[in-house]
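Design job #97: recover the sequence.
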């Protein structure tokens, strides 16, 4: 398949228009990301790519130049990453049942959970349908968010159906959630974010909704104009970015897409009231620049540029649904308003 030149591809709409590129990162010779489970940026705009290759944490500058790597041999399966306001790096290792806090250079500072020990929920695989009961931390956790208060919220997503709230120093404060599709229940709470007021947004993936909660876990409302959301990111202006897996990748056996023409992977932007501002992708050409096969994470840097990581292999590339060179990381450079008119 011939790809369009990245510089020619414009995605999004209005104030949220971007130039897309999938070959922005400059890897050392012989290195591969394999697939990108998570991506985040620090205060300087350096990009931390949490991937499933031999070098699980690779750091690039904004121009895509390689800076360093760390974490080799430390992770069972990279899954989620968040960088706090102090540039601390939080990595979620779902198969190890832990969340770890690192310095930007890779020094381990704190571990949440016990390595290799899963909570007893009845689940022994990533299939949420095997969960029998909600449990304590963790059973295949998926993502972590840092609140303005400094507290941490962890989505305990594949083998549990809970959100856990921790103090900054690792003390478990409370948990909420149970298997199901009612308010405050989850079928794979996969992604999580906290806005400036402390409202908690949970990407409830297999229920195809984003649920919103007060800081103590009281259900507020839900947004349903999403298709199997994997992650949520809230920028400094309060806009909400959602990476949506869609219905053409990573479906559990026996699950069926909705009737009609179900969307593939896409990225959406909402305002704080849940009104759609922009959307791109859809999976019609999943290996083309600007489209997606399996969006798994989204992050916006302080310059307004968007990064989307994809689990192209585990969501179906390893079964031949897409070619091995299908991009697993794309950068979308925000177009200034005066240029997008």
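Job complete. Output follows.
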């Amino acid at each position: 398949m011939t790809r369009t030149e990245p510089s020619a591809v414009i995605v999004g709409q209005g104030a949220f228009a971007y130039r897309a590129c999938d070959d922005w990162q400059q890897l050392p010779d012989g290195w591969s990301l394999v697939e990108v489970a998570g991506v985040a940026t620090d205060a300087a705009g350096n990009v931390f790519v949490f991937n499933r290759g031999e070098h699980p944490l690779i750091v690039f500058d904004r121009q895509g130049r390689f800076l360093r790597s760390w974490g080799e041999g430390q992770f069972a399966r990279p899954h989620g990453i968040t960088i706090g306001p102090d540039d601390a790096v939080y990595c979620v290792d779902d198969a190890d049942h832990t969340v770890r806090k690192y310095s930007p250079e890779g020094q381990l500072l704190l571990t949440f959970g016990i390595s290799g020990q899963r909570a007893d929920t009845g689940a022994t695989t990533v299939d949420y349908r095997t969960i029998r009961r909600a449990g304590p931390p963790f059973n295949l956790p998926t993502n972590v968010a840092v609140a303005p208060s400094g507290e941490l919220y962890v989505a305990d997503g594949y083998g549990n159906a809970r959100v856990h709230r921790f103090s900054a120093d690792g003390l478990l404060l409370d948990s909420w959630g149970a298997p199901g599709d009612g308010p405050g229940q989850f079928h794979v709470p996969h992604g999580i974010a906290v806005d400036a007021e402390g409202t908690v947004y949970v990407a409830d993936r297999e229920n195809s909704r984003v649920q919103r909660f007060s800081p103590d876990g009281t259900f507020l409302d839900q947004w349903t104009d999403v298709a199997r959301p994997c992650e949520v990111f809230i920028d400094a202006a309060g806009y909400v970015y959602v990476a949506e897996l869609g219905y053409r990748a990573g479906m559990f056996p026996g699950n069926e897409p909705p009737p009609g023409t179900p969307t593939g992977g896409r990225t959406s932007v909402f305002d704080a009231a849940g009104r759609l501002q922009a959307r791109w992708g859809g999976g019609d050409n999943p290996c083309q620049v600007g489209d997606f096969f399996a969006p798994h994470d989204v992050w916006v840097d302080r310059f307004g540029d968007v990064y989307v990581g994809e689990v192209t292999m585990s969501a179906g590339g390893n079964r031949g649904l897409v070619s091995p060179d299908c991009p697993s990381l794309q950068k979308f450079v925000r177009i200034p308003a005066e240029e997008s008119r």
